[in-house]
Every structure is written in C-alpha cells, then in structure tokens.
Amino acid sequence: MFKFLKILIRNIFQGPATEAFPLAPAPTPDRFRGRVSINPDLCVGCGICKHVCTGGAINISPSDDKTGYHYTVWYNSCCLCGSCRYYCPTNAISIVNNWHNSHFQEEKYKMAETHFIPYMHCEGCGAPMRVLPPHIAAKIYAHSPVDVNKIIKLCPSCRQIATAEQQGELHESKPE
Ligand code: SF4
Ligand code: SF4
C-alpha cells in the first residue's frame, strides 16, 4: 500500500507521461521527416529530383506559354526517402518536420506543394533559362579565375563560351 501511494504521489507531481496532442502541439524533432519542401528560387529545373523520385511524387511540366514550368510534389505519394534532397544539385529541396498531412480521400490531389517557376532570359542569346544560384556557381568555378557574377545569368552554351573567353583573356594578359 505504501509503495502504491508513493507512486501515486510521484505521478501527481510529475504530471501525465503522454503528450497532450491534439489538445497541445506535439513535440517534433527538428530532423523529423514530415514533408518535402522546395525553394523555387534555387531550382534550375534540371529534373534530377523527378528522375530519382522513388514514389513518383514529383512532376515538372512546362507552362503552356513556355514562360516557366510548374513544379509539384504530392505528399500523398512521397515516401520521404530523401533521394530528391540528396541528389538536388542546388540544395533547393529540404525535408521539413511538418507532419500534419492527414486528409480526406477526396482531398488527396490537393495535398501537394506547387510552384510556378518562371524562366529568365539569357543575357547572351535571350534563350529561356534559370539563373545559376551564386553559391553553386562559386563552387563550380572555385578554382577558375572567371568572374562568377558575369556568367550566372548566361545559359549553359553562352556560359561555356564566356568562360573560355574570360580564361583566354586572362591567359593572354599574363606577363611572359
Ligand atoms: S533537382 Fe533540384 S534544381 Fe533540379 S529540378 Fe529538382 S529541385 Fe530543381
Ligand atoms: S522524398 Fe523520396 S519519394 Fe518523396 S519526393 Fe523526394 S524522392 Fe520522391
């Protein structure tokens, strides 16, 4: 009896051992995989995430007027494997700890993150393109003397030419 009373008094002072959810927010670890999230500013539309997606949860399709592309990730199909985040070359994808994904069956196609991501125009030839994120350009050209700020707004073809030209100019200007 004394043992029981001891446990009872201890539990009264400690409070409930279970979470109060849904009456209060459930504590969620920061790195918990709740849902995939995209940073449209960093996406260059390469399509690698769609290619590696285990659940077929990602779709990237050009807009009808060809001014950009629609990016969709369906929470319903995503198995949170993390492949898209791992392979995205620009770190545009993260997995956030928001796990509030419950929904009715008729809402399943609405459970998605969608973005319209517009194209810019290449400053060299005017072709539609996405700007290379500066932190990625800085990594790619870390050992090259080219001016990164001049080439990030160029399409891959113009970038190749500009890089070769800049390197050629620097080479020619070096004292013999
Ligand atoms: S892999 Fe990254 S940069 Fe490429 S389309 Fe997907 S989100 Fe965009
Ligand atoms: S976490 Fe896996 S299943 Fe989910 S969108 Fe990314 S690649 Fe697809």
Automatic annotation (TrEMBL):
Q: What is this protein called?
A: 4Fe-4S binding protein
User: NADP among the record's keywords?
Assistant: no
The record places domain 4Fe-4S ferredoxin-type at: 34-63, 69-98
Give the originating organism: Taurinivorans muris
Q: Which domain of life is it from?
A: Bacteria
Q: Does the keyword Metal-binding apply?
A: yes
Q: Any idea which UniProt keywords this protein has?
A: 4Fe-4S, Iron, Iron-sulfur, Metal-binding, Repeat
